[in-house]
UniProtKB/TrEMBL annotation:
Swiss-Prot/TrEMBL keywords: Acyltransferase, Transferase
This protein's encoding gene: yqiS
EC number(s) stated in the UniProt entry for this protein: 2.3.1.19
Single GO biological process annotation from the record: butyrate metabolic process
Record's keyword annotation contains Acyltransferase: yes
Highest rank taxon of the organism: Bacteria
Every Phosphate acetyl/butaryl transferase domain range: 77-294
Gene Ontology MF term list: phosphate butyryltransferase activity
Designated name of the protein: Phosphate butyryltransferase
Keyword Transferase attached: yes
Family: Belongs to the phosphate acetyltransferase and butyryltransferase family.
């Protein structure tokens, strides 16, 4: 499966995306591409005059496309609040970060009364297409949870499994990554992996197959797994890689992009709606893939 298949799944869904602080030329380029593909409608929150000026200069056809609405916000904090409220009130299905600090957007998301809390952990789910690999690989969590404990890892698995199911994998294979593939009492990642694997086998974690601890090579390479004498339904065939902490996740994420030239779409899961939280450094292509992934996740929530 390729990321382009996710794009295909995201077309003609009637999804609506609320963008906080949308007055950014690169972001509006993504909006225009998504509108041309008929992926979604957009509610743009930001400085009204600035938004209209950017659209007039770069994508004037958007104004009469029927794909966008513009609502004035006095600043980025106001834009984040208004965008979150539109999702909470079901006027939009997806929240997307524009030219607003991540901390400002997440503060609005996590507001006790007005936000999008569910009681679950929010986690980053990144779906990669790696050239030469026979399937998409999902990495979690590379951006939100610093050093997740056992209970948080269980919720991170749940979030990732729901996203991967939304793109067509019925029973995702989850590999719990560690430096080694044996339980070592001095390595917390291996202890957590052993417990989570057992919880899956006893039906306490459902909807997926889990195995771990597994080193990265044994998780993604059948040959490497056989060399180590590891036999399981997951080893060498993982769909989801659960990393032990944010450092390892961040390194793996950026290694795939910069060393392997991998393509990626990523969202935040665990809130009442998918959140597209891309950075300014992300390519337009990556932002479109992230939006497509969010649309699939939103449609899966509604089904």
């Amino acid at each position: 499966m390729k990321l382009d298949k996710i794009l295909e799944k995201s077309v003609n869904t009637n999804a609506t995306v609320a963008i906080a602080a949308a007055e950014d030329p690169e972001l509006l380029r993504v909006v225009a591409e998504a509108a041309e593909r008929n992926m979604a409608n957009f509610i743009l929150f930001g400085n009204h005059d600035a938004l209209e000026a950017i659209i007039d200069s770069h994508r004037p056809w958007l104004k009469n496309s029927g794909k966008i609405q513009i609502f004035h916000a006095v600043d980025s904090t106001d834009a984040a609040k208004l965008a979150v409220e539109s999702v909470k009130n079901k006027k939009a299905d997806i929240l997307m970060k524009g030219n607003v600090p991540t901390a400002t957007l997440l503060k609005a998301v996590l507001h006790k009364e007005l936000g999008l809390r569910t009681g679950r952990v929010l986690s980053h789910v990144a779906v990669f297409e790696v050239e030469g690999y026979d399937r998409l690989i999902t990495v979690t969590d590379a951006a939100m949870n610093l050093q997740p404990n056992l209970e948080q890892k269980q919720q991170i698995i749940h979030n990732a499994v729901q996203i991967v199911k939304s793109i067509g994998v019925d029973i995702p294979k989850v590999s719990l990554i560690a430096a080694v593939e044996v339980v070592n009492p001095a390595m917390q990642a291996t202890l957590d992996a052993a417990v989570l694997t057992q919880m899956n086998r006893r039906g306490q974690i459902t909807g997926c197959n889990i195995d771990g601890p597994l080193a990265l090579d044994n998780a993604i390479s059948i040959h490497a797994a056989k060399q180590k004498g590891i036999e399981s339904d997951v080893a060498g065939k993982a769909d989801i890689l659960l990393v032990p902490n944010i450092e390892s996740g961040n390194v793996l994420y950026k290694s795939l992009i910069y060393f392997a030239n991998a393509k990626v779409g990523a969202i935040i899961a665990g809130a009442k709606a998918p959140i597209v939280l891309t950075s300014r450094a992300d390519s337009a292509e990556s932002k479109v893939y992230s939006l497509a992934l969010a649309i699939c996740a939103a449609q899966n929530k509604q089904s």
